[in-house]
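Quick note —
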Amino acid sequence: MEKVSAKTGVQPPVEIDGEPDPDSAVIVALGCNDKGVWADCREALEAALARFRTEGVDVVARSSWWRSAAWPDPTDPPFLNGVVIVRTAHDAHALMAALGRIEDAFGRQRSVANAPRTLDLDLIAYGRLSGDLDGLILPHPRAHQRLFVMGPVAEVAPDWRHPDSNETAATLAGAATVGTDATPVKDTRQC
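Predicted structure written out below.
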C-alpha cells in the first residue's frame, strides 16, 4: 500500500474499489456549539460541508452527528460533532489553510481557549503522516482521547488505525476518556 510521503505530503488516492481506505484516510472533525446565523448547529455543520468542495475538498464518507456536553466547561452550550473522510489534492498544510478559510467564513472567533464556536474544523489524520510537520502535528494530538471524535471515526471507518499507536478507531472509541457522554443523534430535529 502506498503511503504519504513525509517529504512532499502528497496523499495517495483515498478509495480502493470505491470504498474509503482507512489506512490512507484524510479525516476532518467538525464541531459546533454556537449556531450563529443558522437555525441550529446541524444546519451550520451541513452548510460547512457544502463549502468543502469550493475549497477543493471532496467528502467521500461521513458520520452521523454526535451530541455531547461542552468540554471542558459543561455549562457552555452542548456540541454537535461529526467526522468526514475527504479526498483532496491539497497537502496537509494547504488543507489546514482551506479549513481555516471555511471557519473564518462561518464567523469563527478565537477569543479564549475552548470558547463556544460557530465552527471548529480539525485535521485528525492525513494518511499515515505522523509527527511535527513544520508546526502542524499529525495525527491530532488529543483526538484519540475524545469520544466525540473517535466515536464518529469508528462509525465510518472502524478499522482505521491510529498512525502512532496502531489501535483501531473502534478500540480508541471504547477507551476514550473525554466527552464520554457523546452519542449519535438519531433524530435530526434534536440538533
